[in-house]
Amino acid sequence: MSGRQIPPGRAARRRGPLSRAAVALLAVAAGLALLAAAAAWDAARIPLGRLETRAPFPTALMRAREAEARRLGAPSGIDFRFVPYDRISALLRRAVLVAEDDAFFQHGGLDWNEIGASARRDLERRSFVRGGSTITQQLARNLYLGEERTLTRKLKEIVLALRIERAVSKRRILELYLNLIEWGDGVYGAEAAAQHYFGTTADALSARQALLLASVIINPRRFSPLEPPPRIERRVRTIAGRMLRRGQLSEAEYRLAVGEPAPALEAGGGPAEPESAGAETPLGTEEADTDTAGVAAPGDSVRQAPAPPE
Q1: Total structural domains in the chain?
Q2: What is the pTM of this model?
Q3: What membrane topology does this protein have (predicted)?
Q4: pLDDT above 90: residue 204
């Protein structure tokens, strides 16, 4: 047999680093598995309460905001008024779904594609920022977990979202979400936001008011619907365009919301796709928006879906 023999010592030295790397990888995997199991166990023991009939109050997020205000010596308070699902504007309900979780009525609480994309972003940034969360996950975080940003919190959020989906209906989840979401410092829920910003009620919001509220969810403590910056106006236009194409918004409502005529209709009667927009591209957010965002997670992607039941 020809060929050069590799001395046994050298072969061992070559295998050594590989073996150590394999052991390290297995140790990391085992650690993550234990962490996931512990988080799942903790989340499974958190009492959900009577979500079907009672609105939990105060939420974990409300308590966290109050504690933050006390630490800073800042004024605090909770403006919160729960109203039934049917007393929240249908325009606001639809706009929030388009902006935050367009597949809400199709998934079981989790969007695995977005969870994977969010995990990859977190690994690249070496930090745990928000993104990839469905409305159910956002509700779980709001109710029970607060604002902590760790892998453990994310795992708990996933388990709680699955539990919530099994416990109550989609309609009830959306009702709770719209009543408990943060819409500015100390302002929680659609009714409080409608009265605080526009002096009206949640069921009487105009098209523009509804779309502005949906658009500032990406960071309700940074952006105000009363003084929307250009990027919020762009979000209003994007959400309005999608709702118009789906028949969820009339041309008159589009004009009121955006301040310009509706896009031209195609020959078949449907509104034409704007030249500058892709086909239902996700509503993105900048990383900076995660710094002080409220309940709703910035960066949650949007997928085209049928109109939700009324």
Answers
A1: 1
A2: 0.76
A3: Single-pass membrane protein
A4: yes
